[in-house]
Specification:
Radius of gyration: 19 Å
Number of helices: 2
CATH topology: Alpha-D-Glucose-1,6-Bisphosphate, Chain A, domain 4
Structural class: alpha+beta
CATH class: Alpha Beta
Order of helices and strands: EEEHEEEEEEH
Strand content: over 45%
Number of domains: 1
Distance between the termini: 32 Å
Oligomer: single chain
Number of strands: 9
């Protein structure tokens, strides 16, 4: 888990003794899992191509444009998001990161685990959300992870 330690100091000019408070800021993690009755190589082939990710998106995604390595889209006319593949590990992992500055820092990661001839898939969204965004976005981001894994399972079954 990504953590950033921030130390806040009281007003140095105050007459009180020098106090500090340490706050740990952590990425908010949204995770969903699915078991797919196909080998990891087939699941990886689907996920490695950003063109296929349109099929995993909910209905509120508009103006989808993609290549093998990138995708951009609008979320219900609220925000435009541009993503790119940050890393691929064949039959193991696909990491997706922002291609342009997003409203908040995030990383999407698909991890594949071979189980005999099948694959367990874990989809994780890590997002750097302040308190306000956490309250507003946590529900939709968890629904997105669940929707994408369920849809992946449906497409590849």
């Amino acid at each position: 888990m990504h953590a950033l330690a921030v130390t806040l100091f009281n007003d140095i000019n105050s007459s009180q003794s020098f106090n500090y408070q340490e706050i740990i800021l952590q990425m908010t993690i949204f995770e969903s899992k699915v078991h797919i009755n196909r080998p990891a190589s087939q699941v990886y082939s689907f996920l490695a191509d950003m063109n296929n990710h349109k099929q995993l998106m909910p209905e509120n995604i508009q103006d989808w444009d993609s290549t093998f390595n990138t995708a951009s889209f609008n979320i219900d006319n609220m925000a435009k998001l541009s993503l790119k593949v940050g890393n691929r590990r064949e039959d193991k992992e696909v990491k997706i990161i922002p291609a342009e500055k997003p409203p908040f820092d995030l990383e999407l990661k698909w991890e594949l685990f071979s189980v005999q001839h099948d694959t367990d898939v874990v989809f994780t969204i890590s997002a750097d959300l302040n308190m306000m965004l956490k309250m507003l976005a946590s529900g939709p981001l968890q629904k997105l992870t669940d929707h994408q894994t369920q849809t992946l399972g449906s497409i590849l079954s």
